[in-house]
Write a structure and sequence with these properties.
48% helix; alpha+beta; Gyrase A, domain 2; 108 residues
């Protein structure tokens, strides 16, 4: 395999692990997301290139945004979804603050 491909798979694996850890911690706080469904609705793990949490949204960079199931993501509790180029910004409102807090804890 090419080194670039290995790096991409490494980034995808790291992002999925971080998301899984965040969701597991948040589920203890009654956060309504289920990581397996979210990954599925984002087009699968191979479609995710990067992810980060901000104050009001969860931003995911994807290979192909046409694979995203926006209705499914909204059923998980998203208050809105914004598509910009190859990124999906999922707005969770107050839940995004909790998501950001847990993302920062995991990065430490």
């Amino acid at each position: 395999m090419e080194i670039q491909t290995l790096i991409q798979y490494g980034i995808i694996a790291l992002v999925l692990i971080i998301i899984s850890m965040i969701i597991l911690k948040l589920s203890k706080k009654d956060f309504g997301l289920e990581i397996n469904k979210l990954v599925k609705y984002l087009g699968g793990k191979d479609n995710i290139l990067d992810a980060e949490a901000n104050m009001s949204r969860f931003k995911v960079t994807l290979k192909d945004v046409t694979k995203v199931d926006k209705e499914g993501i909204q059923k998980l509790g998203a208050k809105g979804i914004v598509e910009v180029d190859n990124q999906i910004k999922i707005i969770f409102g107050n839940d995004s603050r909790a998501l950001k807090r847990y993302a920062e804890e995991i990065k430490k």
